[in-house]
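Researcher: Batch entry, complex prediction.
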Amino acid sequence: MSTLNLLIAVCIAYVSFLFFVAFAADRLALQGKKAWLRSPLIYTLSLSIYCTAWTFYGAVGSAARNGFEYLTIYLGPTLVMVSWWWLLRRLLRIGRTQKITSIADLISSRYGKSSLLAAGVTTLAVIGTTPYIALQLQSVTLSFSVFAAQSDGSDPEVYRDLGLWLSLGLAVFTVLFGTRNLDAKERHDGVVMAIAVEAVVKLVALLSVGIFVVWGVSGGLSEALYQIDASEFGQWHTDRSRWAGLIFLSAAAFLCLPRTFQVLVVENDDESHLRTASWAFPLYLCLISLFVVPIAVVGLSIMPEGSNPDLFVLTVPLALGENGLAMLSFLGGFSSATSMVIVAAIALSTMVSNHIVMPIWLRLRPSGASVSGDVRAAVLMARRLSIVGVVMLGYLYYRFSGGGAALASIGLVAFCGLAQVLPAMLGGMFWRGATRLGAFAGLTAGFATWLYTLYLPSFGVGTILPATIIDNGLLGWAWLKPDALFGISGMDQLMHALLWSMLFNVAAFVTVSLLSFPSPLERLQAAQFVNIFEHSANTRTWSRGGAQTEDLMVMAQRILGAREAQALFAGHARKQGARGDLPEPTPDFLEVLERELGSSVGAATAHAMVGQITGGMAVSVEDLMAVADETAQMLEYSARLKEQSEELSRTALELRNANQKLTRLSIQKDAFLSQISHELRTPMTSIRAFSEILRDTDQIQPDDQSRYASIIHDEAQRLTRLLDDLLDLSVVENGQVNLNLRDGTLRDALDRAVSSAAVGEDGAQLEIKRDPAREDIALHTDLDRLSQVFINLIANARKYCDAPNPCLTIRVMQDADRIVVDFQDNGSGISPEAADLIFEKFARVSDQKAGGAGLGLAICRQVMTRLGGSVEYVPALRGANFRVVLPYRTALAAQ
Amino acid sequence: MTSGADRPGSPANFHEKRTYRRRRLTDAARLAPILALVLWFIPLIWPQSGAGTVSSATALIYIFLVWAGVIVMTWGLSRLLADDPTNRAADEGSEE
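Model: Structure tokens for the complex:
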């Protein structure tokens, strides 16, 4: 059996083993045996996803070419892990409480669930990761071909199709184990387990080669060190800017790469695992980089001139005839490549499907996401298609870039691109003032700079950027040359791009954040992220005052209404003696608040809501806001209903009163009709009787005759008066009356009224008291009508005043805008219920004194309304008191 | 956080001291990455050429010794900062 066939057999066996491990892990997880699957050791090993084939093979190559620079790639992540207490713990807590599913989700969630930002970060991640996947495919096919070529001497080009089969296999594996569930936190036990196994394989492979080289070839540690000193990089020599810059870059990449974020944050199950990983992962990195230099030195000394140092890990054991070791080394590289592709595909597919495919799909669907099972299937399908898409994109990139040196440098280029997310990420975690617009500006500025100064030139001069731009700058401006912005030349290209892109990024981020104003959701999220340890206490009761009062306030306002919430909070602040309007979130206060909220939304919901802000439950803030909005709407609706029903009962009461009044009026009217027929009939009877006497009696005395005739005349006049009154009322009521406006004084009108009322006076004398000096007020009005009103009032007093010595006092008062004339007699007045009716037609205070038709006051009221004033009954201490009010303009117009 | 001080008796003193220790430990955990960074930046001031250049083997040993030191330091800190329910509130509270 040839070496090639053996190689293929080993590969297939290894892949089958991985399938089995992933499958078994998923089964165990399903059975609930997660203790071992979710141990700190597995977590630490899964972090090794950071070390790809690029580091497995490339570290030795880099050491052979650039000396110690390769170490920076491991020092950066070590520093990040050592910063676990203030950085990673916070990041993990945010990831857990906010149910973060990817780095794009983190950024989007922090900046008010901005879908634009999420799509932007996703695009950046896809652009940065695709070449990286291509790099993995390249390294596998390269190692395959070199391995086989050295064994069989056949043409390495034969294995080109290998890349396709490899990517297909990886896509299948990822689809199988990466989209098994739609768990909210996107955990993949099988995949993580497989990654952990691969981490062990690559560490063991590299350590084996290293131990073989140091003790098997060099002959011991001291000899190996001597060899290093004697080799061509025997003296410490390193580009200082690259040393510092690459440490920063690798640290940033460790935080921002989609695949490391996936295992570090998303797949994390228990924060305490971080404590172990904080020292165990640096140990892993230390071990994996320990033998890189000895391998490079030995490779340089024993391999022929011009051989590729990137493959020393593989070629050195092969050259020394250690086929078994070479096979192990090959598997190490294979592991590094496959694990990277799998996790990157999962991470990217989550981002692509959640932030690009699903929003578009939901928008295109006419009915929206109404059926949940429907969406679930769609999400899974989107994710599967995304996985295949991402892997195939990597493969196509590999095919069309043609491999080679352009790919080898892409690792750091990709690091630099993804590091652009760092300012928005750290700013979002530590600075409440960071805004969505700021993050967007920073990302855009950094991304554009990176694209122009590093990514596009990395394809080679003349490929995408024409040579004229590279030589002369954009639009011929020399200060825009991609490798020497602002004319600062002579820098390493990567460092140049890193410096300017980060500078522009941070500057834009900070400036725009300072100038813009965040939305309420953004501010709430900012508070949640920055004060994550106060929001996400593990305690269930309110024993710790960790809640953020401001956030409670925001929520309470939505539910209780702004004024009530403010009053509640301010009241408690006063009670606690706190400064300002916000009280300390003491357990007492939280309980009161919860009760208040509970009265609106129910106790369980209220507890969950307060818990969300104080204790970090599994409800997202957005859900909460939706609930709050809904509740507010319901409260508003019910308040409106209550208002309407109150209005209805008010109307019903008014109707009932009106009905009573109508009934009373109807009775009055019946009484009046019988009265008026009586009134009409009495004079008619006299007229008829006396006219019959005049007609039928022959010998009638002349004085009798004239007496009878005058009786007939008087009675006819009485009838005419009655009919005149009725006619007058209907005219005034219909508004057909023509006002005859004249100048005069109030005294004239009163004089006329008093003298007219005195006509026909008989029996009891009515004494009238006046104050003529005060009555001297000029008027411009219909004096006749006004007098008519006065006559009526005086006549009423004469008719109805039941005092032994009836007396009417007429008082005139004048204030700023009106003239008031009171007519007060000394009788017994009018009872309150009668006062209600006297101004109605046909109303009469008593049936006993059948003086008139009951139309006088009704006419008075109509007349006064026409004159712009009013007449009303004013209850007085004694006697009846009618008040006539004239508008002052009536008086003014006369002056 | 200062519940110990509110209570009379000896346990209060003991509790106070432990809280104080733990706060200093968290300070150390925050400073650890700075220390590591400074140590790894030392090679930046090594002469690049001429007399006094550092040999590769020495450089390698220095960097890996620092690495080992950092790992041991982080291990120690993570052990000391391990979950201690009585002190949990104190460390959470001191975060901000």
